[in-house]
Amino acid sequence: MACGENLVEVGTLSGVYGVRGWLRVYSYTDPPENILSYGPWLVGDGPPVAHEVLDGGTHGKGLIARLAGIDDRDAARRLVGAAIRVPRKRFAQAAEGEYYCSDLIGLQVRNHEGVALGKVLDVMETGANDVLVVQGERRRLVPFLVPDVVRSVDLEAGTMDVDWDADF
Length: 168
Prior knowledge:
Layout: E1 7-17, E2 22-27, E3 41-43, E4 49-51, E5 53-59, E6 62-67, H1 73-77, E7 83-87, H2 101-104, E8 108-111, E9 116-125, E10 130-135, E11 139-143, E12 150-154, E13 159-162
């Protein structure tokens, strides 16, 4: 991992599975099992430690994985709750007009009248459509509906133009 490399949190280690070091995995990827192909994982909330994914798959409604160097339940238990991060460059190129949520975080949002609404802090999944959490002088929830609300996204410039009233 290069210093300053753009890391994206793709899941967490949510529990232990069995006695041989397997871990339960909560994935933020879509579909969830995609997380297994992003190894090695950088695990931990402090300086991350690289762990090669040796094996993994679906188990019931969740995922489990076996990591290199984690050979028993006690070693696995020490990782429970840790974030799983990977370098952004491991993601496939998004299709035209599609974006990874992590790429939207930090974009400056302005409306069709040129009023700065703030910066994207988070993207919430609601089922019907994603919703941008935009923080400026106050917090706004802006539906991510292209092209009805979100008119343009310029990742290079770090901006997003929306058709959204500043009073909402």
